[in-house]
Specification:
The chain has 638 residues and is an alpha/beta fold. The chain has 19 helices and 19 strands.
């Protein structure tokens, strides 16, 4: 057996914990434990009222990643049930007190943004706006950094960057408040400037701008020690906030630079044998010090995601894998009821307050270490979801999937009056969006991009896959961009040189056919202006299409759901891939060094992949995963 194959087998064994690969991965095992402990709300102690707590948000973000990786609605439903315990129809949040100016209370807003973007329900938008309002008036340091809490005046803690900034940045992206990105960048720059030790590159837990706290160094304002979980919060905040930054915003490069300095520093204090991090990382030789689960999970997540997204060099992936192996070996336990548990998380650590926490080593060692702390569980689930992607990442590594937003360019207004681009876009998480599809491409290691202008040789140069979907008519867009002869020539040349082209049409009356077919004909394909697989209401069986065994694209899916498609007429070099009865539903064509895939429907938009609507007997998510893998396998690195 070759070394790469041995390494892959070893990783699969680690992820499953068994030679039985059908066993649930660790992310789902621990998430199921969380659902068992907190089935519908969040109370740390049985019998006490549920609280609006950031801990729950950490778990739910991990659960969200599992949903994106599986398409199983169980995980989305848990997020919605959990948040609906707190948010009423007016968008009021139970147990949320904005006048305390506690930045921790903003963290759960990430899930409210998810729920709003997916469901469109206005109560979630109203709740999100309440949290946004807190940040407008939240007290700041003289330099402009958010205080950690009103009661912790003039202080910034590393923890607060995770609690506030990913929500803040996503809000900016969703609601078009572009100036927010400048403010988000400022928070990370100020934190590094004021908390970083120049010698080690590590950041202290917090700093006090006023220099009045007993724990604060009178010269620097820094707390006495480097607490591992604080580092973890800061690292996760950076890799998460970058998901929402515009590609050309200068703050993106600033945060990536901070992340690289951060990664270099934290891996120097990673234990070489176990891959774990001590609770107080700058005092590893102290006898009472210990390896800590939540911090180690957060840093594994930071490194693994940083590599996957291209922010960090690939060499850090091995560091992340070593850390995850250490987590499983030391902290994962299975109880007599069959539940998977996580030990080794310190319940809390802070600075100041009542009783006063002086930031000393003795203080940190005095806090309890418990089993199934939600912060640790959530961080472990996040780390596991990243590590579980690694075996697939090589398929799309270095490849860009380009989605057309020129021939299809639709706009709408939401409940807040904002006009936004929607319908088959990467960012659109509503039913008609392609966010789930974009997540699938990323899970296979590819990056996604959008082309808002006409396809030219220069615009297509770096794309491995180019997707054109549902070209507009005047019904969708006042002045649609129709396919022109120059577009056909540029695209055909690109395919001939090795590009993979995806043509997704629609049924008659819902897409432009004449000009689109001038492109499709180049590859022996004509989209017929018809309507097949018409489905009445929710009679899903009317759209069921069986996939014969041995299909070269759909290796694991046995059936799919297709609704209201235009059929295909083929000539050489096109060949049928999948039929619905006697009609050709999908086709492929080899053209020069490249490949073309065609289907008369947008098909894999969120509504029919994310599991919330379509019965699970229809394997659209599995088929989408097969399809994404096949497309990427046809490509060359660009």
């Amino acid at each position: 057996m070759s070394r790469p194959l041995k390494q892959l087998l070893g990783l699969l064994l680690l992820l499953t914990g068994s030679t039985a690969f059908a066993q649930e991965p660790y992310s789902q095992r621990l998430a199921n434990t969380a659902i068992h402990i907190w089935p519908d709300s969040f109370s740390m102690r049985p019998g006490t009222p549920a609280r609006w707590s950031y801990d729950q948000g950490v778990i739910l973000k991990g659960v969200e990643h599992i949903w994106e990786a599986t398409g199983d609605p169980k995980w989305f439903n848990y997020i919605q049930t959990s948040m609906d315990h707190y948010v009423n129809d007016q968008g009021e949040i139970k147990d949320y007190h904005p006048d305390t100016y506690n930045i921790d209370h903003v963290n759960n807003g990430k899930l409210l943004l998810t729920l709003y973007r997916v469901t469109g329900k206005d109560k979630y938008r109203k709740a999100v706006d309440r949290l946004r309002q807190q940040l407008i008036t939240h007290p700041r340091t003289k330099e402009g950094g958010f205080w950690h809490k009103k009661i912790y005046d003039w202080q910034m803690w590393l923890d607060g960057l995770y609690m506030g900034q990913p929500f803040y940045a996503e809000y900016a992206q969703v609601f078009g408040e572009d100036t927010i990105f400048n403010d988000v960048t400022r928070q990370f720059v100020l934190m590094e400037k004021n908390a970083r030790d120049a010698k080690t590159g590590l950041l202290y837990h917090g700093y006090d701008e006023s220099r009045t706290q007993k724990w604060a160094d009178k010269t620097t304002g820094r707390s006495p020690h480097v607490w591992a979980r604080a580092l973890g919060w800061y690292g996760m905040a950076m890799v998460d906030v970058l998901d929402y930054f515009p590609a050309n915003h200068p703050g993106r490069d600033s945060i990536i630079a901070i992340l690289n300095r951060f990664a270099a520093a934290v891996t120097k204090v990673q234990d070489a044998k176990t891959g774990l991090w001590y609770d107080i990382v700058d005092m590893p030789k102290e006898k009472r010090n210990y390896f800590e689960a939540s911090a180690s999970s957060m840093l594994v997540y930071t490194l693994a995601k940083g590599v996957r997204k291209g922010y960090l060099p690939a060499s850090y992936q091995a560091k992340a894998q070593l850390g995850f192996k250490g987590l499983v070996n030391k902290f994962i336990q299975k109880d007599s009821a069959g539940l998977t548990n996580l030990s080794g998380t310190v319940s809390v650590s802070g600075l100041g307050g009542k009783p006063y926490r002086d930031g000393s080593f003795d203080y940190y060692m005095s806090e309890k270490v418990i089993v199934n702390d939600p912060k640790g569980m959530g961080a472990f689930i996040l780390a596991a979801t990243e590590i579980e992607m690694i075996p697939k990442l090589s398929t799309g590594k270095g490849k860009t999937v380009l989605l057309d937003n020129y021939f299809n360019n639709e706009w709408r207004k939401d409940a807040s009056g904002r006009t936004w681009g929607w319908h088959y876009t990467w960012d659109d998480r509503s039913n008609g969006g392609y966010n789930f599809l974009g997540q699938l491409f990323e899970q296979y290691g590819a990056s996604t991009a959008t082309l808002k202008t006409a396809p030219t040789a220069a615009n297509l140069k770096n794309a491995a896959v180019y997707i054109i979907v549902d070209p507009d008519t005047e019904k969708e867009t006042a002045k649609p961009n129709y396919v022109q002869p120059a577009d056909v020539e540029a695209i055909a040349t690109w395919v001939k040189n090795g590009g993979v082209l995806v043509l997704l049409g629609n049924d008659a009356g819902n897409a432009e056919f004449k000009q689109f077919n001038t492109l499709a004909k180049k590859f022996g394909i004509i989209f017929n202006e018809d309507n097949k697989l018409m489905v009445q209401n929710n009679q899903y069986d009317q759209g069921k299409v069986i996939i014969p065994k041995g299909n070269p694209v759909f290796r694991t899916a046995a059936n799919v759901y297709l609704k209201e498609i235009s059929t295909l007429q083929l000539s050489a070099p096109a060949t049928p891939l999948l039929k619905a009865g006697n009609d050709v539903a999908m086709a492929t064509a080899r053209y020069g060094k490249g490949v073309v895939f065609a289907l008369g429907d947008p098909w894999i938009y969120n509504e029919y992949v994310d599991g919330r609507k379509l019965p699970l007997q229809y394997e659209n998510f599995k088929a989408a995963s097969d399809w994404v893998r096949w497309l990427l396998q046809q490509t060359k690195k660009k």
